[in-house]
Design goal:
Cyclic_Pdiesterase; four-stranded antiparallel beta sheet; Cyclic Phosphodiesterase, Chain: A; 2H-PEstase_DUF1868; about 25% strand
């Protein structure tokens, strides 16, 4: 699926930034937001990483930095399965087999035990496509999708198995949009500022490769949105595809 400029929304959202006060303050300082997740970090030797690094540098040098908290390139990743956030404790996003008031470390330990025995059931690499660059009141991200129906089935099947294993099923589980976050919005923008930034992103988007590969999913802890600390790669058996048939 080749990316086009049409994938970039023409409308922007100058309303109050969605994540200010939760993950970042209005000065762009990162705030504590601990939890765990299963992700694939973007390989730093990939063509996509190099293209995004150029966008990152342009944003850093632009006057738009005051509106955003740019995520460190070392943190760039695609979430395979969301895991938990310590500050979000409610049915659907917290494991059914763990009390809502249990310490986060208890969740870390529970997931560590379960995932250490789990087989991803599919062979990597995961083959993905970039379907658009999105600017919204939440921030700037790349939207991603498996490159074809077979890859879609593999990745959605893995998410279903992880949901069952970890006893979490958030609203929108089936329609979850894979993505790669580049920046979080921390201040509202005027229409003129938004249009200028949109033009910058459109021009940069032309140089983004539309297909890329990701490796074995990683179980990670995080204290905030600036770093996702790998605990281990999930197990991958030589004949893993059989477990999805």
């Amino acid at each position: 699926m080749a990316p086009t400029a049409a994938n970039i929304p023409q409308s922007i959202h100058p309303a109050t930034a969605q994540r200010a006060g939760e993950k970042f303050d209005t000065n762009g300082n990162v705030l504590p937001f601990p939890g765990n997740t299963i992700v694939c970090h973007l390989p730093q030797d990939s063509q996509l990483f190099k293209a995004l690094l150029s966008i990152h540098e342009k944003l850093q040098q632009s006057r738009f930095t005051k509106f955003y908290a740019l995520l460190p390139p070392t943190s760039w990743h695609m979430t395979v399965f969301e895991g938990v956030c310590d500050q979000r404790r409610k049915p659907g996003v917290w494991p059914k087999d763990l009390a809502l008031d249990a310490p986060l470390q208890s969740c870390h330990d529970l997931f560590h035990e379960k995932l250490s025995k789990f087989d991803v059931g599919i062979q990597t690499p995961l083959r993905m496509a970039v379907t658009g660059i999105i600017m919204s009141k939440a921030g700037i991200r790349l939207d991603l999708a498996p490159i074809d129906a077979t890859e879609e089935k593999r990745l959605r099947g893995l998410r279903d198995r992880l949901s069952e294993l970890l006893q979490i099923r958030a609203n929108g589980h089936e329609s979850y949009v894979f993505h790669l976050a580049l920046a979080y919005r921390v201040l509202p923008m005027s229409k003129n500022d938004g249009e200028e930034l949109l033009a910058l992103l459109k021009e940069s988007y032309k140089n983004i490769p539309h297909e890329f590969e990701l490796g074995i999913p990683e179980f990670c802890y995080f204290d905030d949105m600036f770093a996702f600390h790998r605990q281990f790669y999930l197990n991958q058996s030589a004949g893993g595809e059989r477990s999805l048939k």
